[in-house]
């Protein structure tokens, strides 16, 4: 016991205290930002390879804390741990419905994609809340896409999947984000309640390095398509990547080549009309 006590003491380095304080401050700052309505949304276009036009915008949360933008990967993790993700998710959906409603209303084929954390799906009223927010914002559920990562499908709690099934029954589509980075990937794809797969940008970047993993990329696309799923590729930065992905059957493309994520007032100005043509 004495040894263990000594180890605990020794392992608590000053750096850990600094990290703990930083995280506590970030959590408090994030809570405040949520209360004050300071979580912003940027939009990145998704281009149809068939129509060569923007058919979707993905909503990406933005938070500025003490003058600098905190990367979403970082604050979403904090939000998940602290439970704030529920309010942030609702706010991103509410705001993006409000901001994109006029654009969506122009064409029923247009969609809004919103990222959803597995933690949000643990709430049994998640599906109901999503549909409520869409209805309040006058957005048709058929124009909504929820992006989830594979890990949500590993959750043994049946109500998690039931949420997604309920939403799909109401017309909402589910996209499998970061496809190819998980464990089950190809084999289990058939069983998952998804409509769209998003090929992760780490695979798209292989197109630069000319790697031997390319057959994995092409078989992911072919497998998804043979199951009747739509395929979007993300992280496209070069015309070469766009051409390759179009040639191999991707339905839609997203990446800095077309536009970076932009606030609503710069959303359509940011789109470069170079790429796929
Ligand atoms: P994600 O959903 O996989 O989003 C794609 C990320 O790739 C975004 O980073 C986007 O800005 C970036 N990206 C897009 N095109 C390119 C490109 O051509 N090259 C490169 N290098 N990157 C590109 P971002 O906005 O920093 O978001 C990071 C992650 O944070 C997202 O990954 C998503 O997992 C999470 N996230 C963002 N907003 C939300 C949200 O509202 N809710 C939840 N639950 N997660 C969110
Ligand atoms: Ca996403
Ligand atoms: Ca992704
Ligand atoms: Ca991601």
Written overview of the protein:
With 277 residues, the chain is an alpha/beta fold. The chain has 12 helices and 9 strands. Strand 6, helix 8 and strand 7 form a beta-alpha-beta unit. Helix 2 (14-35) packs across helix 3, helix 4 runs parallel beside helix 6 and helix 6 (126-136) packs parallel to helix 7. The protein starts with a helix and ends in a 24-residue tail after the last strand. The structure holds ligand C2E and calcium ion (3 copies). Ligand C2E binds next to strand 2, helix 3, helix 4 and strand 6.
Taking pLDDT < 50 over at least 5 consecutive residues as the criterion, the unreliable ranges are none
Classification by helices and strands: alpha/beta
The first-to-last residue Cα distance is 70 Å
Name every ligand kind in the structure.
Answer: ligand C2E, calcium ion
Radius of gyration using CA atoms only: 20 Å
* Spatial ordering of strands, largest sheet: 1-2-4-5-6-7-8-9
Strand elements, count = 9
Work out the strand percent. 15-25%
Summarize the amount of helix as a percent range.
40-55%
Overall average residue pLDDT: 90
Shape category = globular
Order of helices and strands: HHEEEHHEHHEHEHEHHHEHE
Domain EAL: 23-275
Protein name: Amt family ammonium transporter
Brief digest:
It comes from Arthrobacter ginsengisoli. The protein has 277 residues and is an alpha/beta fold.
Q: Tags for this entry?
A:
277 residues, alpha/beta, eight-stranded mixed beta barrel, 12 helices, 19% strand, globular, binds ligand C2E, binds calcium ion, Amt family ammonium transporter
């Amino acid at each position: 016991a004495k040894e263990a006590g000594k180890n605990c003491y020794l392992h608590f380095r000053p750096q850990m205290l600094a990290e703990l304080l930083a995280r506590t401050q970030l959590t408090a700052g994030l809570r405040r930002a949520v209360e004050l309505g300071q979580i912003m949304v940027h939009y990145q276009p998704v281009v149809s390879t068939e129509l060569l036009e923007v058919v979707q915008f993905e909503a990406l949360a933005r938070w500025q804390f003490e003058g600098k933008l905190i990367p979403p990967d970082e604050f979403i993790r904090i939000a998940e741990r602290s439970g704030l993700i529920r309010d942030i998710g609702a706010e991103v959906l509410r705001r993006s419905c409000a901001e994109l409603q006029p654009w969506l209303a122009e064409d029923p084929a247009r969609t809004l994609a919103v990222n959803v954390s597995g933690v949000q799906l643990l709430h049994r009223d998640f599906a109901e809340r999503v549909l409520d927010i869409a209805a309040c914002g006058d957005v048709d559920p058929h124009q909504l896409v929820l992006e989830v990562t594979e890990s949500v499908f590993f959750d043994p709690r049946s109500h998690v999947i039931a949420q997604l099934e309920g939403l799909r029954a109401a017309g909402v589509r589910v996209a499998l984000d970061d496809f190819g980075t998980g464990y089950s990937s190809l084999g289990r794809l058939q069983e998952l309640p998804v409509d769209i797969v998003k090929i992760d940008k780490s695979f798209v970047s292989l197109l630069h390095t000319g790697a031997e993993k390319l057959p994995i990329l092409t078989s992911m696309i072919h497998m998804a398509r043979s199951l009747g799923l739509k395929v979007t590729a993300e992280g496209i930065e070069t015309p070469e990547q766009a051409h390759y992905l179009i040639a191999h059957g991707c339905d839609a493309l997203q990446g800095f080549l077309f536009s970076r994520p932009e606030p609503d007032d710069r959303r359509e100005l940011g789109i470069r009309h170079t790429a796929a043509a």
